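Problem 3 from the worked examples.
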Amino acid sequence: MRQKQQEQERWIGQYGHVRPVIAADHLGKKFVAIGNRLEYSETWKFIPDFLLDYVPHVFGKDWWDAEVAKPEGERHQVFQWRVGCLRRMRAGVDANGKRTVTADGMTGAYLSFAFNLFAIEDNSRLDDVLLRRLKHPEQFQGALHEVFAEATCLRAGFAIEREDERDPATRHAEFTATHKITGERFSVEAKSKHRPGVLGQAGVAQPHEKLRLTYGRLINDAAAKNPMHPLVIFLDTNLPFRSAHHVYGNDPAVPSRYITELCKRICNEHGGQYPFVMLTLTNIPHHYAAPHENDPPRHVHSIMTEHPGTNKGKALRALYNAVALYGNTPNEFPTF
C-alpha cells in the first residue's frame, strides 16, 4: 500500500491530478480506457505508441484520410506534427529494438498536444465544438491554447465547465474552473497571439526582429467579457525561442521590465485595479524549431494579484504550479 501511495504521489508530482493512464493486457492486445470507452492495439508497448494512434482516432478516419490526400505543404498542423514524430521515433530504434528518442520540435508538439487532449477526454470534457475548432486550420491555434489551459486546470485539481457560447446575449469566458478542494471558482480565458504564416495562419512569416510584442489588447479583450468569477488569463505570446527574452527577460524568477510595464499599463487602464487575479504568459515554441532541431526551451511567467472576492490561496497556487507540468508525457503504462 505504501508503494502504491508513493507511486501515486510521484505521478501527481510529474503529471498533476489527471488520472493515470488505465491499461490492461489481454489476448496479446493492450487495452486503454479513455473516459467511458476503450481502445486497443497489438503494437502499443509504451504510452507514446498509444498517443500516436489516439489523435487520428479522435479526429476521425475521414478527416485523416482527407489530410493524407492533400499536398504535403497544405496539411493540417497536427498531421505534420504526427508525421515528424513518427520519423523521429523510428530513427531512434537500435538493432535490438530499444528506442531512445530526444524530442525535436514536432515530437514535443505532437506528444504534448495528444496527452493534453487525452486528459481532457478522460475527464469527459471533449466535445464536438472543441473538436471542430481543432480540425479547422484557421481556428486551430486558439483551440490549441484552450486545450493547454484546460489541461493545466485539470492538472491543478480543478473541475471544468464550459460556458454556453451559443448564448448571444452576453460574451463568455472559455470555461469556469472550480477547485475541488477549496471550492473557489474562476473564469478562465485563453488568448493566443496570431502571427502570419505561423500555426496555420495565412500570410508569410515575419523576420524575428520585426515581430510585434503587443499583448495589451488580448488582455483587455478577456477582461471586457465581464466574467462571472475572478478572471484567470492564459496568454500565449507565440515567439521564437531566441526572441522570447524581449518579453520574459533573462531571469525567470524576476518579472522583466516589459512585463512590469505591461501590467502597470493594464492596471491604470482599469482604474488602478487589475482585471485579473492571475495572468500566465507562456511561450511554447515547438513550431519554431527547424526540422530535427531539438525541442526549444519554454518561457513562463505568472502574475497573481489581489482582487475583491478571492485571495492568493491554495487554488491559485495549485494552478501556478501546474503550468510547469506542461510537456511532461509519461512513457511507461502505470502499474498502480
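Problem 4, a separate protein:
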Amino acid sequence: MVFKPFNAQESLRGSLAEWYETEKNTATLLKAVLKSLKIPTLSGDDLWSVLRLTWITTVHGNPTPDHWKRLKVPALAELYHRSCEVLGDLPATLKRLDLPLTVTEAAAPKTGFVNFRNVWRNSCRTWCTANKKALIGIVTEAMQLPANDQARYELAKRIGSLSAVPSPDEKSSVGAPAVLTPVVACLDPWLRFPVINGRGEIGALLRSLKLADGDLQRQVKGITSLVGQFGIEDALTVDVLADVIAKHIPKSLPAAGGHPSEQQDASDLPYLDEAEREATRKSQSVTYRNRHNKITNTLRELLRTHKLSQGTRPDSRYAVLVKNYDQNGRDLLIEVKS
C-alpha cells in the first residue's frame, strides 16, 4: 500500500474556504492600518483597538453579520480620531469615516475571526496600557518577521513572558498568547506565525501534537513546522482547519526514531491539480486559484529536460529538487511560493 499523506487543500472548501478568506482579509486590514500609523506613538487604547479588529461577536456559535458595527467601525474611528457614526451599511459608514484609501479598501470585506470572551474584552484595555511599551515592540517586530522562523520563536518567547490579562473581578485570567497571537499571525508578512488561543480546536491540535503542556515557544515551533507540508500553505490554514489537522497529521508524521515504512524519501515530480476552489460570499461565486500548483507545473515544463523530484517524507518535504542541474553533479533545491 502506498503511503498517502494528508492534504489540507482537500478540506479547505466551501464555508471553510470562505472563512479562510475572512482571516486573510483581517490580516490585510491590520497590515494596512498599522502601515498608515506611527506605531511608536500608539497609546494603550490604540493597541486595544488593533486587537478589536480581529474580534467577532457570535450568537449560538455563529458570527453575527453586523459585528462590524460594534467592533470594526468603533476601533477604526478611535485609531484615526474620527467620530463614530454607524450608517445603514458598511460602505457608507467607511466613506463617512474618511480613512486612508488603503484602509477603507481593506475594511470593506468581511473581517474578524476571534471570538474573544466578553469577560476579557474590557479588562484587556487596561492591560494594553500597562504593557504598552512591550506591545509596541511586539507589533513592530511582527510586521518585520523574516522568512527564517528563528525570529518567530524568539517573538513567541517574548509574548509568553508577558503577564496574563485579569478578569474585571481579578478572580481569573487569560494568558497573553490568547490576546496577541491572532494579531501577530495577521501581521506576519509570511503568514507563518500561528494563532494559539483558547479555542477548542486549537487545543485539540496541540494535544494531538503532544504540545498542550509546552510553553508558547515550543507550541509555535511545532505548528510552524507544519506550514509548507501536507498542503498547509500558511498558519491561517492551520487555524481554519485545526480540528481536521488534529485528526490526520499525527498519522502522517514519522514515529519517533523512524519513518513510515512504506514511504519513500522522494518521488518524481507530478503534475499537480490546479482545480480552482470556490466559496460563496453574499450569493456571489468567488474563485480562488491554487497558484502554488500552477507555478510548480510551469516550473516542470521549463525544466522538462532535467530529472525532477519532490520530497515526500514528512520530516523533509521540499517542493522541487533538480538533479545534476549544472552537469557537474550538483543538485538544485527549489521552494515554490505563491
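Solution to problem 4. Residues 256-264, 274-289 have pLDDT under 50 and may be disordered. Residues 264-334 form one domain.
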